[in-house]
Amino acid sequence: MHARISASKQQARVAALQEEVESLQRELGEKEDAEKIVQRHIKLLHQYNEAKDAAQVLIGRLAALKGSTVRQIHKDLELPERD
């Protein structure tokens, strides 16, 4: 069951949310496009994941050459076992 909210409280809430949006936009920068920022972030994450995957392949090959495990190579190189 939903509680009823008066029209004046709804208007006050809408005004507060609009002010929050405007404040965040000012913080972001008036001419900044949030969608472009998100797309750039996604692109950077993709590049990071590709580099990480390539590094893991090399670590796997190094482990095979040394007759070791990937976990041991991580320890030897002082790399984290997880992200």
Automatic annotation (TrEMBL):
CC annotations in GO: Swi5-Sfr1 complex; Swi5-Swi2 complex
Keyword Isomerase applies: no
Coiled coil: 7-34
GO BP: meiotic DNA recombinase assembly involved in reciprocal meiotic recombination; meiotic joint molecule formation
DNA repair among keywords: yes
UniProt keyword terms in alphabetical order: Coiled coil, DNA damage, DNA repair
Matches recorded under PANTHER family: DNA REPAIR PROTEIN SWI5 HOMOLOG
Family affiliation: Belongs to the SWI5/SAE3 family.
Record-given protein name: DNA repair protein SWI5 homolog
Species of the source: Tetrapyrgos nigripes
Upper classification of the organism: Eukaryota, Fungi, Dikarya, Basidiomycota, Agaricomycotina
